[in-house]
Amino acid sequence: MHKPLRIPDKAYAKRRKQLMRMAGDDAIAILPSAPERIRSRDTHYPYRQDSDLLYLTGFPEPEAVLVLVPGRKHGEVILFCRERDPEREGWDGPRFGPEGAVEAFGLDDAYPIADLDDILPGLLEGRSRVYYHFGRDQEFDLKLIGWLNRVRAMVRQGAQPPHEFLELGHLLDELRLFKDRDEIRLMQRAADISVLAHEAAMLAARPGIHEYQLQAEVERVFRSHDADPAYSSIVGAGSNACVLHYRANAAQAKDGDLVLIDAGAEYRGYAADITRTFPVNGRFTREQRALHDLVGEAQAAALAQARPGTPYETGHVAAVETLTEGLLRLGLLKGKLEKNLADGSYRRFYRHKTGHWLGLDVHDVGEYRFDGESRLLEPGMVFTIEPGVYISPDDTTVDAKWRGIGIRTEDDVLVTRDEPQVLTNALARSADEIEALMASRG
Prior knowledge:
With 442 residues, this protein is α+β, with helices and mostly antiparallel strands. Helix content is 36%, strand content 17%.
């Protein structure tokens, strides 16, 4: 697994061409890099490039702007970036600089970021449409308005300012939703690393262990395979598993507790997202197993709908129906199935949707609905399937034996021409598989 993977240069070039073709010859697209973020005083968060800029170039540095100018004779792909600076590079590491960026990323041209003010108005002039993510970066929005105003001020001299402003996401989100072969390879690597990390946590689990110790196991495996956490790892023991976005990871797991771990690696920008719930002592109780099996049935029902031509929503509907049936069977809900589905009483135990798109962002871009209708699945889409059951420790309307149990099972699924491909399939999923893996702890 140690051979590094990357997106080939020609794939980035193809993506830029597709986007420019969609935008049209009289358009311009402007994509600033993600800003650096201060964590506290003069300490920064680790830098993560804007996903769209990453998708179109692979360029990793802050203080950069990509400009696409379809049909321009002097080059269509222009990057503004930081210049080389030996003094700063001694502190922060090497930079590509404009010349290095052209060479390394297959661009038509690159300029120092300091020249953006002088050059961009000229690139806007004569273009009728501007594609840009409005409202995402207020500071950059104001700069863009300033450049437009400079072009407008030249109208009497014959300048033609753009007259249409369009959301870049309308074009780019649809491109990013469909994963190509190279992207799937990176996502499979992220999934494989995440599988190893979850296994390491299950093997390290013992009554008395702290949630942060299990988190450390997971993230040690990420880093040892050249990956990072794709999001803040969730490790919830006992009733902490009922908190959907539990972050504290500080409690101690007691004998008889279940532990829910929701954690995924990010490899070369691409995310995995896995959840497993396992008994810290290696053996499920009767109640824990009953609910774990039910969540497994709901997941299988949703997975069976992951076929091309099926509405995305169908998987959620199938999971909800399976969960509601099971909750009635176990006595956690009362009455008829139809009535429970219609009045949404299952939401007490299952509050979220059954999944989301996955890619360069954990909750990846792409529309879920068109004109109010759920969109149809197509090959190349990747999404999570993650049903769960959460029974509050304070819920006195249910038998005490169920209280404080939280279970979620989540896998990453690629839609293909026929059978769905579960990228995270190698990880123990059923209660029997989890117990067998944990029994090997010795």
